[in-house]
Specification:
Layout: E1 4-9, E2 13-18, E3 21-26, E4 29-31, E5 42-45, E6 48-52, E7 62-63, H1 68-86, E8 92-97, H2 105-113, E9 119-124, H3 127-133, E10 140-146, E11 150-159, E12 162-172, H4 176-185, H5 199-208, E13 210-213, E14 216-219, H6 221-243, H7 246-249, E15 252-256, E16 273-274, H8 282-294
Parallel strand pairs: 1-8, 8-9, 10-15, 15-16
Antiparallel strand pairs: 1-2, 2-3, 4-6, 4-7, 5-6, 10-11, 11-12, 13-14
């Protein structure tokens, strides 16, 4: 059996799907600092040794993966870290880049292939979601991938056994961070200092919907729900501007990615909205299926 891996290196998290199942880790990377005692998970390529994933947050020399240039530059370290976690090299890796970065696909492919002997294929971000849920779709569909910084969408139409792309784009600064900022702005004055938390800490509070202060837990679920509604309405308004009536005329809307659970489906004036199980893994599940089709399995 050919070892196929679906890989999605995002600005927030990296997701992986293989024969063994799925896992994810923060897309954090830092230079390994010298320490008399360290069990940090590190990756070495040439003369450089980097800490990848959760352990990177404890390192003083962190590198922010905030744009496509940084993502491609450090993709070999993320790829090698994935290989270390899997315990073996894949023969085929399927990954994706947002529509706006289609001209970077070859650079990204070469970066991935630089650390293993197999092949990498790079498709348009969102194709994985399409493949993951295609058995639930009608004649046309809108695929929405909500990431950490961006939202990618694909408007697709069936043509026999294949799909044709009618429209696709990347909307920058409309990802999960936008919902977190709405959450920050709605924090009450008596918790004003929470607004000044570091971004990583604020995201943690937002995801949990609570914070513990001097041993006392404060429930912030109502503020989180308000931020979700604001985010949903803001995103729908932007998509409506981009797509016009197509937003409501397609047979199915499929929403996935790490931010899919932020969406309030009842606010979308559409009768068939799909959010797949564990939506953050939808892209890599689909990438894996694409890879298996390529190798004929």
């Amino acid at each position: 059996m050919t070892e196929v891996v679906g890989l999605d290196i995002g600005f927030g998290h990296t997701k992986v799907f293989s024969d063994e199942g799925a896992f994810k880790f923060p897309s954090w990377i830092a230079y390994l600092s010298k320490s008399a005692l360290s069990e940090a998970e590190s990756v070495s390529i040439g003369s450089e040794t980097m800490v990848v994933g959760e352990d990177a947050k404890y390192e003083p020399r962190k590198i922010e993966i905030s744009n496509i240039t940084a993502l491609i530059k450090y993709a070999p370290f993320f790829m090698k870290y994935v290989i270390q976690k899997l315990g073996k090299e894949p023969q085929l890796v399927i990954s994706g880049l947002p529509p706006i970065y289609k001209d970077k696909r070859e650079d990204y492919k070469k970066a991935l292939e630089s650390v293993f002997k197999g092949k990498a294929e790079v498709v348009v971000q969102g194709m994985g979601i399409l493949k993951d849920v295609e058995d639930k779709l009608g004649q046309d569909a809108l695929i929405i991938d909500i990431g950490f910084n961006t939202v990618d969408y694909l408007l697709v139409v069936r043509s026999g056994e294949k799909w044709k792309y009618r429209k696709g784009n990347t909307i920058e600064e409309y990802g999960v961070l936008r919902a977190v900022e709405a959450f920050r702005e709605n924090i009450p004055d008596d918790l004003g200092y929470v607004r000044n938390l570091s971004l990583s800490r604020l995201i943690d509070v937002f995801e949990k919907g609570e914070i513990t202060i001097q041993g006392v837990r404060r429930n912030l679920q109502d503020i989180k729900e308000l931020a979700r509604r604001e985010y949903t309405n803001t995103l729908l308004s932007r998509l409506s501007t981009e797509l016009g009536n197509a937003l409501y005329e397609v047979e199915t809307i499929a929403i996935a990615g790490g931010g899919a659970n932020l969406i309030e489906p009842q606010l979308i004036e559409h009768s068939n909205v799909i959010i797949p199980e564990k939506p953050e893994f939808s892209n890599v599940r689909g990438y894996y299926k694409i890879g298996k089709e390529i190798v004929g399995e």
